[in-house]
UniProtKB/TrEMBL annotation:
It is an enzyme of class 1 (oxidoreductase). The keyword Acetylation does not apply. This is 2-dehydropantoate 2-reductase. Residues 3-162 form the Ketopantoate reductase N-terminal domain. Pathway: Cofactor biosynthesis; (R)-pantothenate biosynthesis; (R)-pantoate from 3-methyl-2-oxobutanoate: step 2/2. InterPro entries: 6-PGluconate_DH-like_C_sf, 6PGD_dom2, ApbA, Ketopantoate_reductase, KPA_reductase, KPR_N, NAD(P)-bd_dom_sf. The keyword Transmembrane does not apply. Catalyzes the NADPH-dependent reduction of ketopantoate into pantoic acid. Residues 193-316 form the Ketopantoate reductase C-terminal domain. Its EC number is 1.1.1.169. GO terms for molecular function: 2-dehydropantoate 2-reductase activity. It catalyses: (R)-pantoate + NADP(+) = 2-dehydropantoate + NADPH + H(+).
Length: 317
């Protein structure tokens, strides 16, 4: 099986490092030539896991998006079975989508790992829905430097389709693919409930991420004050109203899950706080910003989401 990982950030490096020994070919596409060269020289360093240091990733072929798109995009010589799209939502440009299409044949599936919503619409305009798989993962990863990554939390990854009323046909290729992820040490499952899974993760992110980024606190600190808890509750209830209108049956215990995530990741800086600290654009447009827009289509106002959205945009500026 030939896997291509696009985006050598936190999640991309983690998955590539662990999958390298399980598939017949793994191609990793970085953004910059500098990172591709460093990875080709040093391999991926999986911090904290002694058995899986740089050496295990020697077989990976590294290439750089900027280098490849400088001239005409050359389609991949060997058919790619699955492309793991592991860039932030903000990096999914028209140019990147064109590049991805050139890497795909009729047999290739594009697997999208992004948090939030919005990318599915953009990608489905260029790539047939039956070639798109969506992944919801609770794995945690943090890149340090260009070739080093730490596995910060073990989780589970669900894969499935999201076109309404369509179920994932568990063909042999997908079953083999999930088996390969399991052999690489990941918990992985095919799911026929992706909309609910995507929205459950979305609600967790829209409650925790903006507040940690505005207050500049680790996830656990949100639980320490009644004031931040009440803001969390407002964000949660507004999101629930929208989900109910859309008839998305979120789990009854989602609020408890949010509190548990804060507790279990209490010292973590959320991805949005990390983006703000590094002066990077955040994924707010695809989280609270997107909820506000979708709510407008239903004549619903989400005042707390609108307020945190505007605050993050102001901080980003
Ligand atoms: N990290 C985690 O634990 C989790 C992340 N996610 C989601 O997964 C997605 C990726 O997150 P994460 O790995 O943390 O993000 P990172 O920012 O760490 O990694 C994204 C990578 O994409 C690269 N990139 C950007 N544009 C291109 C391009 N055109 N071609 C190739 N590479 C490109 C970036 O390169 P450069 O650095 O050079 O700009 C960067 O290395 C996000 O949507 C996030 O919400 C979901 C669950 C957990
Ligand atoms: C669950 C949470 C909030 C963990 O930090 C996360 O997914 C993120 O930071 O984006």
């Amino acid at each position: 099986m030939h896997i291509m990982v696009v985006g050598a950030g936190s999640l991309g490096l983690l998955f590539a490092a662990k999958l390298a020994s399980q598939c017949s070919q793994l191609t990793m596409v970085t953004r910059t030539t500098e990172q591709a060269s460093e990875l080709a020289e040093q391999g991926i360093k999986l911090e904290g896991e002694a058995s899986q240091t740089a050496k295990s990733t020697k077989s990976i072929v590294y290439s750089s998006y900027l280098e490849e798109t400088r001239e005409d995009i050359i389609p991949n010589e060997r058919q790619v079975d699955y492309i793991f799209l592991m860039v932030k939502q903000t990096a999914i440009t028209d140019e990147l989508v064109t590049y991805l299409r050139h890497q795909m044949t009729d047999q290739t599936f594009l697997v999208c790992f992004q948090n939030g919503i919005g990318h599915e619409q953009k990608l489905s305009q260029a790539i047939a829905y039956d070639k798109l798989l969506f992944a919801v993962t609770t794995e945690g990863a943090k890149r340090n430097g260009l070739h080093s990554v730490r596995h910060t939390g073990r989780g589970i990854t669900y894969f499935g389709v999201i076109e309404s009323n369509k179920q994932l046909t568990p063909n042999n290729q997908h079953i083999f693919f999930v088996q390969m992820l399991k052999s690489a040490g990941f918990r992985a499952e095919l799911s026929n409930n992706m909309e609910v899974r995507i929205w459950s993760k979305l609600v967790i992110n829209v409650v925790i991420n903006p507040l940690t980024a505005i207050l500049r606190v680790p996830n656990g600190d949100l639980l320490r004050s009644e004031w931040s808890r009440s803001l969390m509750q407002d964000l949660y209830e507004e999101a629930l109203k929208l989900a109910n209108l859309k008839r998305i049956a979120l789990p009854d215990k989602l609020w408890d899950t949010i509190l548990t995530v804060c507790e279990e990741t209490k010292t973590n800086h959320s991805s949005m706080l990390q983006d703000i600290e590094a002066a990077r654009q955040t994924e707010i447009d695809y989280l609270n910003g997107r909820l506000v827009k979708v709510a407008e289509e239903w004549d619903l106002v989400l005042p707390t989401h609108d307020m945190v959205y505007r605050m993050i945009k102001a901080i980003e500026n």
